[in-house]
Specification:
heterodimer; A: alpha+beta; Ubiquitin-like (UB roll); 5-stranded mixed beta sheet; 5 strands; B: alpha+beta; Aldehyde Ferredoxin Oxidoreductase,  A, domain 1; Aldehyde Ferredoxin Oxidoreductase Protein, subunit A, domain 2; 6-stranded mixed beta sheet; 17 strands; about 40% helix; globular
Chain lengths: ~80, ~575
């Protein structure tokens, strides 16, 4: 499966190889989950990253959809 | 620490020791508990019996980082209930360092008569006639006050909107650069100040009269541990210094919860043009600034400086809630225009949220088209002039809805919601509906729980309980004089223990971890009690009808809670 990855916050600086304004397309095994993606990208758990697809925040075991745009976001508080 | 009591009718200024019953309470705790005790709930908010209280938080005046927030409370002319709006900048730390816990202003000057309250380094205060400043916008006012009294003074002031007693009028405070760009925006506190005839409060910085920290060694050790915690957190340590609160634009749009075009959509077509990333790029290209220090003793640096294409200052700081109210809600996707609107609100003395939503309600009614940049600026200039239509807009979105016969007004208790749609972040909807303050983004915001998988933003499970706990937490946090962002770092049990040590070192008290929560509950109960005495009922704890009836794209959902469920939020 292919997904288009877009990075927000300081994630572009942390992961320059996946950073581009229009996103980067990557190929993963069919049935990959959000956790599989984060592992593939070597995203550290303590970065506080949330994965969004189709206007929802994915749980780590949620599967991604082939062709989807996946946004990697950082944890924020409101105030 | 002392109280300064100012009567604007008799022009009497009295200094008194903080009464025992108010010792050890700061900020919102002090304003709300005092208002419930001392202000007749049925009084005219713009009349002499209302009290406008400036109360610094528990840590103001100490060496503690991020300890410069002053709470401003009164009976609100907007909500009809109790109100506390707190503001950063320089005033909170400066007042605390003068050994002043609170300034309580009551009475009312003769109509049209203006004064300023000038504090000195000994913690004394005097009223000075200020009719020469009548009608001045805040930037020009502060320029004149700094020229007269010295640039080292912090200033809290009102602009024309406050003098007109408009219900969206803010009280503006100076930042570390001396710009009056920090706002106690919500609830029309500027109208109360204007009604009293108080144009500004001048506070010298560098006072040395604050009550000493009781246990200096523990205070130093615990504050260092706290600072480490804050700086190690990716949100406070990385995201805010690079993008400020504008970092919220991408996540909230990515959850379909960014109310746009007067809350008809949950995603803004132009969100990428007004995002934190766009704002940071803009700052880089135009010699602006992210990571700007706006408040005294700040280690987070969430502020920014927005420049025009020639590198000239436009405004500081362009915040998330303003990018939403003046951007998403109005359909304006141009950062230059939003920054200009932000500046105008600061300069006229207006809440950007209430004002942006008011413009959006008018656009939705066909007064102007969504996205009409010139129209938004014209409306703000009408408010500044005090024209008939300016008064309609300056009194907030509910008044605008009445004027244009549009029931689609995203407000609770007459105060606009903030940048989270209650249909797509339903816990925020619970907070908006039930907060004693009216719809409010700092009263119990749940966005982090959604991003952190603690709650599903569209499912009812856990929302009411977490809104309740968040509201209790925020009420106590607003009493510390610390910015809410650093307070978010004390979520873990270990951090709560550390923070309790810090409070005890400051006060010489014997707080346990539970006492923080107890303080929050005490404050909310006092606020609720005042609101009930003022005539607010359960019917005021409701979202506008369209949130229950109009599905919000992209999720196509409505707000799902029953009245009974909403009413259970304050069961504590």
């Amino acid at each position: 499966m292919k997904v288009r990855i877009r990075l927000f916050g300081v994630l572009g600086k942390k992961l320059p190889e996946f950073s581009a304004p229009e996103g980067i397309e990557i190929e993963l095994p069919d049935g990959s989950s959000a956790a599989d993606l984060l592992e593939y990208m070597k995203v550290s758990a303590d970065w506080g990253v949330a994965v969004a697809m189709d206007s929802r925040i994915l749980k780590y075991d949620d599967l991604m959809r082939d062709g989807a745009e996946i946004r990697l976001l950082q944890m924020v508080h409101g105030g | 620490m002392n109280f300064i009591r100012v009567n604007m009718s008799s022009r009497e200024v009295k200094i008194e020791k903080t009464p025992d019953e108010y010792k050890g309470i700061g900020g919102r705790g002090l304003t709300s508990i005092m208002i419930n005790e001392e202000v007749p709930a049925d009084c005219d908010p713009l009349g002499p019996d209302n009290k406008l209280i400036f109360a610094v938080g528990m840590f103001c005046g100490t060496s503690m980082f991020n300890s410069s927030r002053v709470s401003i409370g009164a009976k609100s002319p907007l909500t009809g209930g109790i109100k506390e709006a707190n503001v950063g900048g320089t005033a909170g730390a400066a007042i605390g360092r003068l050994g002043i816990a609170a300034i309580i202003v009551d009475g009312k000057a003769d109509e049209g008569d203006l004064s300023i309250l000038k504090l000195d380094l000994e913690g004394n205060a005097e009223l000075i006639g200020a009719n020469e400043y009548k009608g001045l916008r805040t930037y020009k006012l502060v320029e004149k006050l700094h020229a007269r009294f010295g640039e080292k003074n912090a200033v809290l002031c009102v602009g024309p909107a406050g003098e007109y007693k408009m219900k969206s009028a803010s009280i503006q405070g100076t930042d570390v650069d001396g710009h009056p760009c920090r706002a106690a925006g919500r609830g029309g506190m500027g109208a109360v100040m204007g009604a009293k005839g108080l144009k500004a409060v001048i506070i010298p910085q560098g006072g040395k009269k604050a009550d000493p920290v009781i246990d200096k060694e523990t205070f130093s050790e615990a504050s260092k541990a706290f600072a480490k915690l804050v700086q190690a957190n990716p949100f406070e340590g990385e995201l805010l210094p690079n993008f400020g609160t504008a970092a919220l634009v991408a996540p909230v749009n990515s959850m379909g919860a960014f109310p746009s075009y007067n809350a008809t959509k949950g995603e803004f077509d132009g969100w990428q043009k007004v995002s934190g990333e766009a704002l940071a790029n803009n700052a880089k290209e135009r010699n602006g600034q992210t990571g700007h220090v706006g408040c005294s003793q700040c280690i987070v640096r969430c502020s920014n400086v927005y420049n025009d294409k020639d590198g000239n200052y436009v405004s500081s700081a362009v915040e998330y809630e303003t990018l939403w109210s003046m951007g998403g809600m109005t359909g304006i996707d141009d950062l230059d225009t939003i920054a200009r609107l932000d500046f105008l609100c600061d300069d006229i003395g207006l809440d950007t949220m209430n004002t942006g939503v008011a413009i959006a309600v008018a656009m939705d009614a066909g007064y102007r088209k969504f996205g009409d940049k010139e129209a938004a600026i014209e409306i703000l200039e009408e408010i500044a002039k005090g024209s008939e239509i300016g008064h309609v807009f300056g009194n907030g979105p509910v008044r605008v809805g009445q004027h244009f016969n549009n029931a689609r007004v995203a407000a609770v208790k007459n105060q606009s919601i903030a940048a989270y749609d209650p249909r797509a972040m339903i816990g925020n909807g619970i907070t908006f509906a039930t907060s004693t303050m009216g719809a409010d983004h700092t009263a119990g915001n749940m966005v982090a729980m959604y991003l952190g998988h603690i709650l599903d933003p569209l499912k009812k499970e856990g929302q009411i309980e977490n809104s309740r706990e968040n509201q209790i937490f925020c009420a106590a946090a607003d009493s510390m004089g610390l910015c809410l962002f650093v307070m978010y770092s004390i979520a873990s049990p270990e951090a709560k223990e550390m923070f309790t040590r810090l409070v005890n070192a400051r006060l010489g008290s014997t707080w346990t971890v539970d006492d923080f929560r107890n303080l929050g509950m005490r404050i909310l109960k006092a606020e609720k009690e005042f609101n009930m005495k003022a005539g607010l009922t359960k019917d005021d704890d409701r979202l506008p009808e369209f949130f229950y009836k109009e599905p919000l794209p992209p999720h196509n959902v409505v707000f799902p809670f029953t009245e009974e469920e909403i009413d259970s939020t304050y069961n504590f």
